[in-house]
Fold each of these.
Amino acid sequence: MSRFEESAPARGGFSFDLCKRNEMLMQKGLKPSSYLKTGTTIVGLVFQDGVILGADTRATEGPIVADKNCEKIHYMAPNIYCCGAGTAADTEAVTDMVSSQLKLHRFHTGRESRVVTALTLLKSHLFSYQGHVSAALVLGGVDVTGPHLHTIYPHGSTDTLPFATMGSGSLAAMAIFESKYREGLTRDEGVKLVAEAICSGIFNDLGSGSNVDVCVITKGNREYLRNYMLPNPRTYVSEKGYSFSKKTEVLLTKITPLRELVEVIEGGDAMEE
Amino acid sequence: MDSIYNDLNAPHSMGTTIIGVTYDGGVVLGADSRTSTGMYVANRASDKITQLTDNVYICRSGSAADSQVLSDYVRYYLHQHTIQLGQPATVKVAANLVRMVSYNNKNMLQTGLIVGGWDKYEGGKIYGIPLGGTLLEQPFTIGGSGSSYLYGFFDQVWKEGMTQDEAEKLVVKAVSLAIARDGASGGVVRTVTINKDGVSRKFFPGNTLPLWHEELEAKDSLLDGLSAASPEPMVS
């Protein structure tokens, strides 16, 4: 069987050869290079007027916190936002890519984007990479057909739910949702519940931490509440201040606007050969 | 600690119990509602009975991603086929399309399926399409991890020409038996009945299902006793 595979011409599509090589190397003991993972707690819930998404803000690189205040709620369309857990590069790239595709689609159709469109684009991309694009997403938005909330797993499967959690802190957050969620929450109740679930992830999961971001999407309106809660302020600041040893050379920083030095021609002739 | 992370990143699979039975006049499809990633229940209320056309539905088991994508493809092919044919697709055609996709991609897919529906030529029909892509037309069929516990049950209880009510009760009883014994099956029982009059979906929450050997009655959540506004303070 393997002999036939080698002699067949390349048929296009993703080649998994390097993935096989990586797995073989890891089995032999090679440590995988550490990449930025968003340990993460991300949640979403449907309330009476729309959907509310929530996320923590810690990005980890192995055991180190690489970014204490990263943004995990990504813009997809004016009425659709997507929280991402997993490898930070993968979630950023896949949400950016689908956001561009949605914009082109809006130009093409002349209509507001629908959540199921984003869902199908994301799930087909992730399925074709067979789980190697490590992005676990909570997609939420409000379109002409109503409010929608979906979870998308790295292998490309999706679920449609009234409330959802993903990421390493998902168990802690789900415990809060399962005990307190009910249908027809008001906006304030919903935001409070989402913040509570994210805090549960922040305090009980080592991969999640720092602040709470919330995004409320309703028909025709969205509120991106960046750093809605800051439950982990910096509590100790040294009174003595931070000074460098005498040997350190402190260079001056000066920004010179280039306009002072060069002649700027506004609206000149087009370049000619 | 690592094992928990592994679980959350494990592929989404539906442990599952799925059933399809024919009765006098149509078919009844039944399934549980648990989707697991490793040992965590990712969705406790999933819908594993997906629509392919107005009169043909499919029960999905195995890898969630594979079965969802396969159903999407077959729904697309069937839609084209219906337009070209000018009348509703037959269950046999739907089942064959599912089999073609499943067999031709057998190396990459891991999903067992049951296709069931009603058409005016053959009436109610059930087709089982297990892992390798075999197509088998059967009066009843079971699938998924929970089905192992049901072979003996069906051998004893199955009879031809049941009424719709008997068939639905049989399916609900069977799924609840499998849920009692299989860790990868759980949640609620969903059934879809398809006959000449159309399609009807039913939903049986966990607390309406019969209790089996040594099962305890479901108690309401202990949290219901606490009022959300002012919980009683802990007193030492």
Amino acid sequence: QHLVQRSVVLFVVGAFMALVLNLLQIQRNVTLFPDEVISTLFSSACSLTSLAAVVGLLYPCIDSHLGEPHKFKREWASVMRCIAVFVGINHASAKLDFANNVQLSLTLAALSLGLWWTFDRSRSGLGLGITIAFVATLITQFLVYNGVYQYTSPDFLYIRSWLPCIFFSGGVTVGNIGRQLAM
Amino acid sequence: MTLTEKLRERISRAFYNHGLLCASYPIPIILFTGLCILACCYPLLKLPLPGTGPVEYSTPVKDYSPPSPDAGLQQGDLGERPDWYVGAPVAYIQQIFVKATVSPWQKNFLAVDVFRSPLSRVFQLVEEIRNHALRDSSGVKSLEEVCLQVTDLLPGLKKLRNLLPEHGCLLLSPGNFWQNDRERFNADPDIIKTIHQHEPKTLQTSATLKDLLFGLPGKYSGVNLYNRKRVVSYTVTLGLQRYDSRFLSSLRSRLKLLHPSPNCTLREENIVHVHFKEEIGIAELIPLVTTYIILFAYIYFSTRKIDMVKSKWGLALAAVVTVLSSLLMSVGLCTLFGLTPTLNGGEIFPYLVVVIGLENVLVLTKSVVSTPVDLEVKLRIAQGLSNESWSIMKNMATELGIILIGYFTLVPAIQEFCLFAVVGLVSDFFLQMFFFTTVLSIDIRRMELADLNKRLPAEACMPPAKPVSRSQRYERQPAMRPATPHTITLQPSSFRNLRLPKRLRVIYFFARTRLAQRLIMAGTVIWIGILVYTDPAGLRTYLTSQVTEQSPLGEAGLPPMPVPGGVLPAGDPKIDLSVFPSDPIQLSENQTQQREQKSGLESLSRLETNQHTWAHGPEGKGNGQMELGTEAEVTWGAEDEEIWRKLSFRHWPSLFSYYNITLAKRQLFSSSHSFRYISILPAIPVTLYLNPQEALEVRHPQEANRYHPFLSSSSGKLDAGAQPDRASSKLQGHQDVTLY
């Protein structure tokens, strides 16, 4: 069935994105991995990709459940654009120096909302994105408190402001890809 | 909402007229847009190439101390301290800049004497530097304690093993070619060959061994056989590990005392710190490549949707060119208005393209191809444009609004990005309206021509299948064509022109007027004229001199030679040209021989196209004495200031990389950047004057046989024979000299 193919594609996409995001973050020195760099990279990549696959499959399901087919910009070109904007948001958050955390969180929130509004104007998308952001942040904090990851600088606020936005926009992007694949 | 309605009407009308204009004059409009693009790209030429050049920062020498290694301690904001200026540098570079000349110059000296004796002095100088020690209250401090100790060379550099220092101080000088051994130097018959033996045969952009040991680019060193100024420059490069100001100032004053440079104007105020940007590592490369892949996928998916046009690839290419040139124009315009781009262009380029988008182009194409086919091309374009006018303007306003919101986030990098995006959007709109519309009209016209060509021969037999095929092609058209195939709605005048495709018409035009042949002929005539006028080989003067030698007119026949001022008044028998060997008998030669040799000399000098040193020729000879040659003066000018800048960018990194010291290192997955830089101290000037005795002593016996006297060409071989002989022997002698 199409489901298997779709999930494979989503898995690959999620893996790739995880790799790219991690590399971007390394340049930022945000997280310090313990000694076995590759293994931790692998494990974080695994978690992110499975999350991506789940989200990508979830979006069309919710669409069919709610009964409103998604009609806004259903073409591959806009999906590519969405991916590019998402990578751009990551790049910006990794490379730019913000004056303070409030500015960072506001900018990122604005960018994520802009992403949602440009490429996916459905309420279901918004709701799902927010849910994913919330859940993922909780999980990450849980992992940190249990010592799986550490932060180099005790800049919790920075992480806390940046992570939900990234998960939100990531969710919207992967949802877009999932919808397009399901079409 | 009549205001909106009126606005829509007006915009539609404006687009309609614009469409008519574009479709009517395609070629001029394309040329106009091309000119605009070039004009806006012109400021880009001033920008440095993006990327990996070294970054500099200067501090004054006075009270200099290396910065602390703790990055957090940035006391206030000391000027614009760059963030790599942290911790001590990898090494301090102290260059001792030596300029030497043989003075006074003897006329019978060989070309190789120019540099042999100045180079021989390097050994003594290196010894002086090595043995320099500062004696003060805290003991004796010698060079070994402050200099940078280097260990082995890289394993792959075996052939340089005896040329670069190992297991000792990093001290480079031209003497390394002879392992710092004076005897080897004296026994070397061919210095130039030794120096060039390790030069690469092909073009080399990084540091060559000669540059490393001389410390200057090759053309400033003067070690060649055509050195007219006869000043040889080289440096002794010293690598230091610690900065000890008292030791260095004592070295400087000692060298200045031993070899004073009286008119030296080199400033000694600043230390220049140079940081070499990190090479791109994997961690940076993968995201960059990914963004470009996404960009290409976006372009591919967008252009896949173009159809119903004659040449899909042509339009796709035009669309990409539109976006690219709009970005280039935006960068150029921003530079023109003073914004210096700090963002890395290669990184943000895909994002800019995605923000500007290829959507408008597709919308335009779709709306134009969906207009009724039986209209003229102009009308189709105009209608297509005006149909989409309102949505295009709305989209543009929305995007501008969004980007302006982004501008107000007050983050400098985002503001710069938004500025580029705004200007890019506006220029993209401009290019779409002019350039892409015109290309689209050309394409539609070609499609119609192709259609017409297909239909015309088939018209004769009136196939009934034609209407079916046409209706299949334009099935979306609400306005269907009438069923009869022979209603051609074209004006008779355009019908006549449409008989041949445009390509063939152009080619026939060229053939008819023989344009190509005439252009080539005109070009050749102009080229020959330019050759004759500028006369690079001095052929004209040689011919005239030949002619006048045989004429009985004498001096009056000589054309006035453009010799640098006041040097050679023609026909003055008393002025002795330095060509003559120092033989007093020749002074009393008769007029004709002098004049002929003078003229031959002139032609030689013209042929060699080196005129400026003749000014040195007769100076100081007013009294007609033979041996005293010219007094060469070593001048220090602005071009000697920081001569290391003229070396290649890879010079210092490659020098240090030979010893496995990396200057631009980034480790993958490391959490701390190690910023490494070097500090280049102001050079110590040293001037050496060597007397002719020394030059004669240093001369190697084999050289006298091999080289001819410097600039004397064949005068030594001249006999008072026939003039044609002299002319030919002069030429021959000249050829001999230029063999080297």
